[in-house]
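Q: What changes when adenosine monophosphate is included in the input?
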Amino acid sequence: MRIVLLGAPGAGKGTHCKRIADRYGLVHLSSGDILRRERAGGTELGKKAQSYMDAGALVPDDLIVEMMTGAIRQAAAGYVLDGFPRTVNQADVLDQALAAQGTGIDMILNLRVDDSVVVERITGRRSCPQCGAVYHVKNMPPKVADVCDRDGTPLVQRPDDTEEVVRHRLETYYRQTEPVVDYYRAGHAVDDIDANGDADVVAEVIFRRVDPPAKKGPGRRGKK
Ligand code: AMP
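A: The predicted holo structure follows.
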């Protein structure tokens, strides 16, 4: 199964992609996580991406497309895309790359969330630089303040999670990424999901959409 999860920053794409990947045995391909690994490894790509990411701007399409089409090729058995595509051009190039591989996207989910919720979620987000675990100062605090539950590493705030940068990331989203939803609507079914609520509730809604419809047993035949 090949799934694309769309939504503004802070809509819960990372959280729900992880849950979807675990439940359906898919590879979670997060463009943001891949870029952060490239930066941590000091690669050429990481260095090129750094200034764009810290300013809350998009990394140029050519860099992203090459990185993501490579990752997708290696995960051909099934994946869930998180943070990609983020421009109409990226979506278009992805469609062409998948067509050339003789595949396509099976499902597109669009997480919808209010701006005020985005700002509250992102500015409260803290993560472990060691293992990648993600917390929220109010909604999902670690057991000991500012320390990772798993390995005791001090938690950090991503440089692009400050309120000023979040506002810029939202502007970038409306200008460059929201048109991707319309691009997809023109040729695919896009499932809109209200993602303002609790993550467990949103996950249940997502699973109901993704789960194959239950087979009807013979006992149901003829019933209304
Ligand atoms: P994320 O973790 O998905 O919020 O991504 C963090 C940052 O990485 C974004 O603000 C962009 O600077 C960059 N980024 C991630 N995915 C993409 C993409 N598909 N196109 C361009 N830039 C991206």
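Observations recorded in class: Residues 9, 31-32, 35, 52-53, 56-59, 64, 83-84, 86, 90, 160, 169 surround adenosine monophosphate (CB under 6 Å).
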